């Protein structure tokens, strides 16, 4: 039996206003006090009462709507660089300018633009000859250029007088966001890479580097995080093997290159999702984990290189990842023997030096390579020794490309390629915890960041302190394995052993360049390079003097033996002569 209740009401009665009327007060209940309950009452002194002054708002009033952002291309009809020209590469832009300036269209356009407005006082009347017309156009253009240069409206007359001494701000940093590994089984955040487009996203490579870590429930996924939504990853990258390193393509932002633990190179196209777009075959890939990948500047933007602990550096083209286009064996004896090669654990390539790259090895040696050399042994140009442990990071200074920073064992060292086969020109003190990663500040030439195994982030400014860091911050209780800075130098990202990525915002004094700071830093590097060169020359002179002394000592010993033998021969000859005389 089904029970129903139907309630019927007229539509006109829905939403009718409530009518209130005055009504006299009445007592509903009256409870008299009970004196026996006073014994159970405990007075409280003092009394704390919380009061909320902020207005209470509904959920829809607090949570604002997010703007939907879409990425699309732009067609530059006039202005802008062509697609095949990398505007960040000065060599390609200079070459393109020279090609345009040689075209007839460019010459005609300059002549047309220079004679658009008539000169108020032309030098002479134009003739019908093309050469005279061109000369008049140049004279008109020169007239307006001189007119623009006559008065500098931006000139500051009292710059020195108005310049005020800025107050020295104490260095500081604060954590703004924390990104956690979504998986239950935590892995290491082995590498970080910011999105080239205004650093709006962060790619994090998650992998366990522990030897024979065979946890069955460990995920292989890595993630791309949107900073506006730090709780859920924007894109999940699904490789066939854990990813050790990730790098964005600065020319095509949708391409992400990854190096896997099994030695493969993987390419993702973020427009197509998290599955790999291309992958190298296992038989033609590295035999050990790939610790470094770099994009190379080229017309197509499809060339890259990779380094691994198997002792090889391989060149690839993402249009054809079946086989490497070139191979280099890191044999410092230049015999090109794979069994004698050093394992690459870090890789550095800067667009400002397109023909050179640096390799940090497990044996503590830094190898400077030249990719334009004719034979593979000649590609190993210079060798820098000084670390007693693996070189986890090697990175060039963004302002002075010949100066580079390395981290290994318990210290960080600064080197210059102008001094070949020499020691570092500057170095930090030896710390008790192991140093694991480092990077330069992209906006201040003398500032760099280092991380240690005790979870500490150190910020160094060598213009002010060379023995102690300007700021030392305890970020985590776990070791900080990876480090990366935004292009503006304001936000630093640190990855821990447990897969947590902390984003820290540093104080303005650490990412604002002061007046003449670049010149002072260049002078400091040159001074330290000269000092190291003088010490190197004195060391060589001492070695030569020691060799000469050893050689002279050997000659003296040889002369003493010869004198002894000669004296012995003379002695016996005298005895024989005396015996003959007596016998006669």
TrEMBL record:
Keyword Repeat recorded: yes
Predominant subcellular localization, coarse grouping: cytoplasm
GO cellular component: microtubule; outer dynein arm
Any Pfam family the entry gives: WD40
Keywords: Cell projection, Cilium, Cytoplasm, Cytoskeleton, Dynein, Microtubule, Motor protein, Repeat, WD repeat
Gene Ontology terms: biological process: cilium movement; outer dynein arm assembly
Organism whose genome encodes this protein: Origma solitaria
Cross-referenced InterPro entries: Dynein_IC, WD40/YVTN_repeat-like_dom_sf, WD40_repeat_dom_sf, WD40_rpt
Entry keyword annotation includes Repeat: yes
Localisation: Cytoplasm, Cytoskeleton, Cilium axoneme
Region (Disordered): 111-130
Annotated family: Belongs to the dynein intermediate chain family.
Gene3D superfamilies reported in the protein's UniProt record: YVTN repeat-like/Quinoprotein amine dehydrogenase (2.130.10.10)
WD repeats: 283-319
Protein name: DNAI2 protein
GO molecular function: dynein heavy chain binding; dynein light chain binding
